[in-house]
Design brief:
The structure is a single chain. The protein has helices spanning about 1-35, 40-70, 75-90, 100, 105-130, 140-170, 170-175, 180-195, 205-210, 215-255, 260-290, 290-315, 320-345, 350-370, 370-380, 385-405. It has a single domain (about 1-200, about 220-405), classed as MFS general substrate transporter like domains (Growth Hormone, Chain: A). The protein has 16 helices and no strands. The two termini are about 40 Å apart. By secondary structure, it is an all-alpha fold.
Amino acid sequence: MLRLAAASLAGTAIEFYDFFVYGTAAALVLGPLFFPTFSPVAGTLAAFGTFSVGFVARPLGSVLFGHVGDRRGRRPVLVASLLLTGASTVAVGCVPTYGTIGVTAPVLLLVLRFLQGLGLGGEWGGAVLLTAEHAPAGRRALWSSFPQVGPSLGFLLANGVMLALSATLSDARFEQWGWRVPFWVGGALAVAGLWLRSSLTESPRFLEIEDHARVPLADVVRHHWRLVLLTAGALAVGYAVFYAVTTWSLAYATERLGVSRTVMLTCIMAAVVVKGALTPVMALLGDRYGRRPLCLAGCTASAVWMFPMVSLLATGEPLLMFLGFLGSLISFIAMFAVIAAYLPELYEPRLRCTGAAVGYNLGGVLGGALTPFAATALAAHGGRVPWGVGTYLTGIALLSLACFTLLPETRPAPAPAVEPAAG
């Protein structure tokens, strides 16, 4: 289990590195480089528009790779999705800017971001299922949380590379070529990830399936459409909170508050470190008390914390911004630490690669695709404290809370204690 979980974690970290490095670049440099004819706010909105395309592509990737995962196995999904995401990430680092090839530049950016999202849409289902279906029932949330640590590591790596370049290069050199380096690093990481995953064995639960679904998506839509919509709505708050902290706040603070890139990246990364460390702790609580109680608690905390978070961000003070981000990400991980066990348990084995991944990635569209875009637009028309953003995030948290309330508990019943034989 440890070797399997470590390989899943490493691969997920690499895939999310590719995805996050684009978000950081969108917040910092893609607007003026690829949309120079726009105003600063409009350029940021356009850059976040290309960022959102990756989320729109993720459900399509979950359908495509979910079909493969339910028909051919979880393992092939891991290799194909990592290859697609890695290749498209390297290509983003090679795209000429608007000043060189004109309108073709943002079009190419859009296409490559779509391919990134397509690959990541397949990654989550394969990595999580391969771990969850090998894990013992009583520790399924714990072992399944290892791939959920991957996004934290990927984020830290992506922003660590960006931070190092931002701190050592002048603004002119960073905008000229420095921002491309993290995308090229993604190619080397993808090769390492492919090597790590080459030794993984197929899921035992998949090998036990005798009646594979001919068209898994059709069965999911026919029999589980309500479940898919509920899980998508439930997960929307996690995506909204995470990308408000890691992507929108970065652009807002550097452009509106005059906070340096280095300070903002450091504050966000410090909060993500704590989030990553708490992931297995929250998962253990999910094994002990259930998946649904953790999700309800995280949703409630998110609804309560969004207004304090935006008010702390508006101070521009590093310690206060860090505390605002930390509260948000602890609320987030209370939900997402157990999701890797929760979603697969909601579906029968023959459909779960498609069902769990489609619900998970539709939540990304509802929460992740719209949040940087909507938050930027709302903050542009407010005062120093972006109360409109707090209202938006609180509304999503309440929607997700209602959806989690309608979902069942899935934690396996504890094994009965064995009574000693009378002698």
